[in-house]
Amino acid sequence: MIKSIEHLVYEHENIKRMLDVVRAASLRVLAGEAVPAKDFHAMIAFIRNYADKTHHGKEEEFLFKAMLAELGMPGQNLIRSGMLVEHDLGRLYVSDLENAVNAYAAEPTEASRLDILVAAGSYVNLLRRHIDKENAAVFPFGDRQLSAEALAAVDADSERFEADPANAAVREEQLQVLADMAAKYL
Ligand SMILES: [Fe+2]
Ligand SMILES: [Fe+2]
Question: Distance from the CA of 38 to the center of ligand 1, in angstroms?
Fold first, then answer.
C-alpha cells in the first residue's frame, strides 16, 4: 500500500527539479539568449499536468480534505488560508508565464522578456517556499493528528489514483518531459 504522504514528498523532489530547470532557462533569457518558447511550453505542461493536476489535485482531494474534516480550526486555517491560496497563486503565475511566452513569440520585445522572468521567478519562489512548508510543517501535522482510519483512507485513495491507467500515462509522459528538460538545462 502506498504511503500517501511519503509519495507526495517524493513528487516534491521531481517538482523542485523542474523549478531548477525553469530558473536555469530564465538565466539564459536574462543573459540575452532568444526565448525557447517550445521549451517553456513543455515546462508549463509539466507544471500544469504533474505539479498541479496530479500532485496538488491529490493534496486537495485526499489529504487536505481529510485535514479540513478532522483537524478543526488550526487545520482549516493552515489549509484554506495557506496551502489552497498558494495553489491558486501558483496557477495565476503560470498563466502569466504562458501569456508572456506567447507575447514574446508574437513580438519579441524587452518588455515580454521581463514579463517572462517576473512570472517564472515568482512561480519558482512561491513553489519552493510552499514545498518546504508542506514537508516541514503541513504533512507532519497531518500525519500526527489525523486518525488512523482517515490516514488509511487517504492512502487507499492515493493507491487507486496511481493505479488508474490514465493517471499513470500522464505521470510517465510528464516525467519524460522532466528528464528531457533537465538534460538540456541542468
Ligand atoms: Fe501543495
Ligand atoms: Fe505539495
Answer: 27
| Ligand 1 center to 56 CA (angstroms) | 5
Per-domain residue ranges of the chain:
4-185
Q: What is the CATH number assigned to the segment(s) 4-185? A: 1.20.120.520
CA of 130 to the centre of ligand 1 (A): 6
In this predicted structure, what is the pLDDT of residue 155? 98
Confidence of residue 2 (pLDDT cuts 50, 70, 90): confident
Note whether 120 and 98 are within 8 A (CB): no
Mean pLDDT of the 75-90 span: 96
Q: Quick one: pLDDT at residue 165?
A: 98
Q: At what angle do helices 148-163 and 4-30 cross, to 10 degrees?
A: 60
Closest ligand relative to 136 C-alpha: 2
